[in-house]
């Protein structure tokens, strides 16, 4: 058992790893204690509030940051050439940091909740304003002081989901376990197919279509004889919808990313409203159909028929975390900086958590955030090490999440091709789409019975004439009232009047 002191030190180490290694590849100096810096205990890193004004924008001062735990302050410093971004809680290059003058993230006041003078069915804001309890942590600010949305973790959300009840939560409608690592379906681990989920995000066009065609050629087949396929989270801008249609025709999964691919990432969890999520996700789904953290997000998904999400970064875990449904409280902590996990229950919506990759002393959620200075042998070893973390333990689905830019290095292509070919030589490893993982979760099936598991079959789909990708698409040069410029859109269908965008997915004039 850990002593309180050693537990605190472990916590500091975990926080240190979490902030530095998830986001950048450069190392950071190990923390030291500081007896002169004031404590700001809000579970976030901050700058010295008493730093000399003339030094605020110096490289040395802006690289320092602090964490206060149990009234003891720990000092950190970014690597040479990097500065600390207090908003994003990461070290980054100088050109990307513009808040050296900001000491800490502002914390909204804590609501009084049941401690206020409110009637039954109501809770109190920090300023004693009484509002219906359903208004708290629903994704929209209602309290005059904003306190109803500022403290929405599982400890403070009065409407938070219950802990897992395995007696009531069973496939196909539901799956949960106490720590997220338990195997569904009462199947022996050696009888479970090791699922490999390859995903790509952003636009599909001539810059990456040939890459996808080569990686997922029909010659590469799963043990059941079906070609390996991937999931593409498509964003609208710069996408060639004829290419999307071709990928869909041959069995790849086309999923929604967003229309605008808006940045920074923190906007999605901190600022996006339910309407924003609707416009972006329903919008891009409508565009695809036409031309081929959080409570707001997950409420949108439940209301409008989305089956699953795959955006929550799970803490580093051995063994890894299995997918789960949102009927109950999520089975792991939500400690990735800037990430707001859902606290409510959303029956019928599933999560494919992102299990981080271990690369030496680093951990990275997506492949392009892993160290970039590796040799071809080290890249291959990275894939193999993390594959075995799944395959030799609980066989939770192994996700590899890419942006096509990562494959611009020939050695990366070679390492990944070698890795894929080795895995395809194993009799119990399958490359499947995200939706196929969910289908397996709903009906856990042993390796020996997969030949009759319909969701993983590759029987030829029957397409209508309009659903089959054309040889020569229409190249549409379209005006955009929003973007104030001409935009191009390739599609097998008739050109719209305007470039499709938020709240005008069909491109109406």
Descriptive report:
The chain folds into four domains: 4-96, no CATH class; 108-160, Low-density Lipoprotein Receptor (Irregular); 184-456, Glycoside hydrolase/deacetylase (TIM Barrel, Alpha-Beta Barrel), CATH 3.20.20; 470-509, no CATH class. The chain is of the alpha/beta class and 509 residues long. The strands form seven sheets. Strands 8, 9, 10, 16 and 17 form a five-stranded parallel beta sheet that branches. A three-stranded antiparallel beta sheet has the order 1-3-2. Strands 11-13-12 form a three-stranded mixed beta sheet. The protein contains ten helices and 19 strands. Mean pLDDT is 82; it is low at 1-30, 258-284 and 291-305. 21% of the residues lie in helices and 18% in strands. Strand 6 (122-124) and strand 7 (130-132) form a beta hairpin. Residues 1-27 form the signal peptide. Residues 36-102 form the Chitin-binding type-2 domain. Disulfide bonds join 118-130, 125-143, 137-152. GO terms for molecular function: chitin binding; hydrolase activity. InterPro entries: CE4, Chitin-bd_dom, Chitin-bd_dom_sf, Glyco_hydro/deAcase_b/a-brl, LDL_receptor-like_sf, LDLR_class-A_CS, LDrepeatLR_classA_rpt.
